[in-house]
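Running this now, will post back.
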Amino acid sequence: MNFNVFNSIILAGVIQGLLFGAIVFMSKKYKNKSVYILASIIVIYSLSNLQFYLQDVGITSYDELLRYYYIPWGNLVPVLFYFYVISYLNPEYKFSTKDYVLSLPFIVSFLLALIYKIGKAIQNESSWLEHLKLYLEGFDELISALFHIAIFIILITKVNQYKKSNGDFSFNTVKLHVDWMKSTFFAMLFVAVIWIILTVMYMQRPGEISFYPLWISMAILIYWFGHIGIYKYGILEERKQIREKKRRKKLPISESKTKHIIIERLKQFLEDEKRFLDASLTLEKTAEALELSQGHLSKIINTELSISFKDYINTLRVEEAKLYLTDDDFSNYTLVAIGLEAGFNSKSAFNASFKKITGETPSQFKNRQIN
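Update: finished.
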């Protein structure tokens, strides 16, 4: 038996992945197509790792694995990533035949593995079976790596297209934060390139190349993606519920305390239209919307309101967050969801601005209101 630190880490990931999938599929909280696809990625990748783990530790030989157990689960992973991203970015999208064609590499590999199993059961030894085995051992792995790269490039493009087409703020739509997804796909793309290099080297020098670092790196990225994806889904659902309640409650806006025409226009743009809730809002975008230069608008804000543009925006966001934190209807929502709905782009930015303006953190403010 070949038990070591590396395959022990892989086994821990397999167990965690299978448990993760079981929890998601059995939970009533996660009844969503994109979440089910995400959980399927984790489960299928765990099954793929499990079969190679059994071979790596010596429970089964590689010949026995190909002959009895091997299923090319790995070729399904990039397809499911594609389905997940599309359904996450556009929940109303209906998959077409063109989308399902992406499953072709898995189907071909599965049929070839099945032919090998049947051939070994009938003939046991044959030259064509040896050629098929060599294909499954090397070239199929190479094609799988290339397929992963192609899918990751497509998904990075899809995420970029989403960001471009959803750049403008809309109170009726919760804008998705997708930078985490794009960064992860770039990391996976890099790992896949290393995968190709190592596979080619292994085909030239069998048994001399270690895939442990690659194996563990990809496992960490995929499991991390799954957990972050579930977390982001929970925050997204809370934000949708907060926004719906906010729409029904019609939370008050601050009254104007100045007669300066530019400040009046600014307050209408930011407060009446709720543009301060846009986490990507900048002085440049605001000045462009008001048809003013950045320098002139910044000077007017500093002169009339005695505050910088950034602090003014964050003050509006903090006041918005305080409305949620003091309202019983929003008491069950996480501080992350409340901060994002108030216009901050992260929990850390929310905490820092809230403490700077109020002297206490959001959780301290909330607890004090409860007490």
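The mean pLDDT is 88. More later if anyone needs it.
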